[in-house]
Each structure stands twice: as structure tokens, then as C-alpha cells.
Amino acid sequence: MLTTLTRQAYFSYRALNGWANWPSFVGNALIAPGFLLIMISLTGRFARDEAAAQSYVAGMSIVGANFMMMGSYLQMFTTDRNYGTLGYLLVSRGSRLLAYVARPLPHIPVGLIAIASSLAAAAFVLGSDFTGTNWPVLALAYLLTCCSAMALGMLLSTFCLFLRDYAVLTSITQAVLYINAGVVIPRNELPPILEEVGKYFPLTNGLAAVRGAFAGESFSAVAPDLGLEFLVALLFATSGYFLFLRFERYAIRTGEYDMT
Amino acid sequence: MTEQPVIAALHKRDKALLQNVRFYLIALKACYVMRWKEGLRISEVLLPLGMALGPSVAIGWVVGQSGNETAIAYIFVGAALSQMWNFAIWRIGWQLTGEFYAGTMELQLTTRTPVMLVLMGKSLAILTLQLPSAVLAFTIVLLFSGGFYSVHNVPLLFISVLIAIGSLVASAFLFAPFVLLNGARGGFFNVFVPVGIVLSGFLYPIELLPPVMEALARLIPTSWAMEAVIGSVVGAPTSEIVTDWAIAVALTAAFIMGANVLFEIAERRVRKVGNLNSG
Predict the structure, then answer these.
(1) Contact B61 A185 (CB under 8 A)
(2) CB A43 to CB B197 under 8 A?
């Protein structure tokens, strides 16, 4: 099973992902995330002060990685559909769960690379000081946050299969994450309803854990945030899987993909 | 040769030139209208708004909370332009990718109309379609900042903004030949979005960048145009603003000429190897 999982993960990444080439990878994973971070932090430095500039580093490092992961992951489903390979998956006898779980796996390390490049940009361009960071906890928090971002991607991926114009949906979802997760706007300054809803969104609790790790907090201090992030991720991934099964039943019954 | 035939020959050449210009304008208009109509689908209208929403709220909040009047007045303009840049780069890149996938790029290469002209018409339409996202960004910053702040010289600001838009068009267009040579590999061009915003000084003066990045930013016309914007806001001497305009316009012209040369190189290379994925 592990071999099949690895094969599916590798081949889907290589064959369906338009960013699996060096120019796209360097641009999207190594350069763009750092520049996104610099953009918002320097705006903070200009409009406010140095403290504001530094306070956006944690949140923007996740935004950059999320942008990279979602961009490369979701396009695989459009490619799957456009190249006509989706039909083969739907008529195969292979495990759907395996296929569903395998696809996002290669994107998680890529997200971590994007985060590393963002932090490097913060250190070199903004002069961010990471002394006092609890690195093992930070690594764990980032890993879980990347998995959580992919869980959201897994839910959105089925929409990419049955909606031709899925980009509007994904862009609005990204905007909601940007606003609700506490990336730039502290969550306690959001309207109460948005603050409450934000708790049940991927990235929100992971970002809180990341901030805690930067402040040098121990694992036990950030464990509640990590636990909540894990549960939210599980909820999103499971919902996505059931939505995918529903889509599959519809496609097999009607012989078409479009549900709208 | 007597004088009369020379003048007649010159007239003939001028006429041919004028005729060509006329044909080019017709082609430019046709490409613009075609892309404009494609962009009127509801999803095409909503997408830039969705993409602009998150960053605009973040930027609006950062600047709105600051109470820094200069920054607010500057970012009113910069946030709108950065959103135009954001989506324009993304769309122009995908435009090329789409043409490669659909196989329509080959048809464009076989026509007598220069590819640059075709893409310029389409790029201008894409930029026009970004106006709602620019208005959205402007409105969001306005909502967060709670009102307009004093601008020292409104006419100078207006001209600076026009020059900034022209610079943005030229800068957005310069990268297109690279995408063409790269076979418009999906995603390659995404990197130009944040890099362009960071180096263009849409959201802050470029003096805040580290020296190496500032030196690079000085080569981009939008950074000079944005310097004129901030000069108009804070009341810099008119001569300084005019100098910024002059440099921005000169660099814009250089970018357009550069794009033309790069397009010719790209077109020649593609024709020579007979393969669009020649990058």
C-alpha cells in the first residue's frame, strides 16, 4: 500500500502539476513567498513602525506557503479534467481513498520550503531576529499548518472537478483566510462573528502555535492550538473525501463532470 | 534621378507606412475588443475582485490603523495600482498559457500582424478589466482609513497617477516575451506579481528597500512614478516631481522598445526551431 501511495503521489505531482519544472518551482516556492512577506512588512514599516513590520512575518510566511501549495495542488485537478485523465481514475478499481490522500502529500514539503525561503527573506531583507525561537515546536507547527492547508485544498479540489470556474471560489476562500486567520489583522480586532468563525478555519490555530513558537513557548503551551488545528484539518479533509465520493457517483451515473 | 521621382517615392513610402499604421491600429483594436468580450463573463469579472479582497483588506488595515496621513494618501493610489498589477501579470501570463494549450498561438505566429501588437491589444483589455479591482482596493483603504486625507497638489497627483498607470502597462508588458520563450509554463510568471509590487514602490517609498533592491527598483518606471505620487502628496518641489515624471516616461519608452526587441527575438526563435516550447 505504501508503494502505491508513493507512486500515486509522485506520478500525480509530476504528470498533472504545471509547476513541476525548475522555472516555476524557483519562482513560486523560492522567490514569490519571500517577496509577499516583504511587501506587507515594508508597508507596515512605512505606515506604522518596525514592530508592526516584524509582527507580520509569521502570518505572511504561511500565506506565501499556502499560495504555493494551493496553486500547485488545485491546478492538478483542472489538468486531470482537461487532459481527459480523470475518466480513467473514475472507472478504475483502485482505492479512491489512496488516490485522495496521495495527491496532496508532495505539496507539503514544497510548502515547508516556501516557508523556509520566506523566513530567509525576513532575516536578510527585514533584519528579523529569530533568537529565542523554539525551533522544534516551530517546525512541528509549520508542518501541521501545511497539512491543514492541504486539507482545505482537498475539500476545494472536488469543486475544481465539477465547477469550470472554480478560481472565483478559491480566490474568495483565500481572501477569507487572509482576513480571518489573523495573518495581518489580530483576531481580537475582528468583528465577534468573524473571530468565532475563524477558529474553525484551517491555518488560524496553526498560526497561533507558530507565533507561540517564535516567542519561545514550549510544546505544552502550544499543544491546544496544535490539537485544534489537527481536528479542523481532519474535518476538512474528511468532508472533502465525502464530497469527492458524491461527485464520483454523479459522474458515473450521468457520464459527465459538470454538476452546475 | 530627378527631384520629382524622389518625392514621389518618398510619398509612396509614407503612404505605405501610414497604411501599415492603419492596419496595425485595426489589429490592435480587434485584439482589444476580442479580449474585452472574453473578460465580460461573470467569473472573469468576479475573479479579480476575489483576488484583490484579501490583500486589500490587509493593506487597508495596516495603513488605516497607522493614522499616518502621508502613508494613507500614498497607499490610496498604490493599493489600487498594485491590484491592477497583481491581476494583470497573472492574466497576461495565463492568456499566453491558454493560447498555447488551445493551439491558437500558432495561428498568431503565422499572421502578418506582429505578435507584440496582438498581445498588446489583449494586455490593454486585461488591464481595463482590472479597474473594478483597483476601485475595490481604493474603497477598502478608504473604509479603513475613515476618509480622504489632504493632498498637497491634486493636479500634480493626477498627472503622476496617469504616468504611473502608463508605467505599469509597460512594465507588465515587458515580461510577456520571456513567458513566450518559456512556452508559457504555467506558474512561471507568478513570481513577477510580488517582485513587481515590492520593487515598484506601490505601497511604500523604495528608499525602504535594501540598497541592492533599491538599485534594481530604480530601473523600473513605476518606482519613479510612485515617487512623483508621494511628492505630490507631501508637497515636494514641482521641479523634483517633473524630474520623476521625465525619468518614468523615459523608462516607460525604453521598456516598450525593449519589449518590441524581445518579441522579435522570441518570434524569430520560435519560427526557427518550429517549436513553441523552445525555452
Answers:
(1) yes
(2) no
**Range ranked top by mean pLDDT from A218-232, B25-39, B176-190:** A218-232
- Read off the C-alpha cell for A144: 501541521
Distance, in Å, from the CA atom of B46 to the CA atom of B32, rounded to the nearest integer, reads 20
- Minimum Cα–Cα distance from A23: chain B residue: B188
Size of interface A-B (CB pairs under 8 A): 136
Q: How far apart are CA B55 and CA A167, in angstroms?
A: 17
Residue to test with chain A: of B72, B133, B195, B222, most A Cβ within 10 A:
B195
Q: Angle of helix B154-174 relative to helix B69-102, nearest 10 degrees?
A: 30
Q: What is the spatial distance between Cα A97 and Cα B174, in angstroms, rounded to a whole number?
A: 45
Q: In this predicted model, what pLDDT tens digit does every residue of A209-256 receive, in sequence order?
A: 999 999 999 999 999 999 999 999 999 999 999 999 988 888 888 877
Phi, psi of A19 (to 5 degrees): -100, 5
The b/e string for A129-149 (b: 16+ C-beta within 10 A; e otherwise) is eeeebbeebbebbbbbbbbbb
What is the Cα A24 distance to its own chain's centre?
A: 18
Measured CA distances, B145 to A7, A103, A189, B69 (Å): 52, 43, 15, 9
- Mean pLDDT confidence for B119-123: 84
B217 vs B113: CA distance, rounded Å: 33
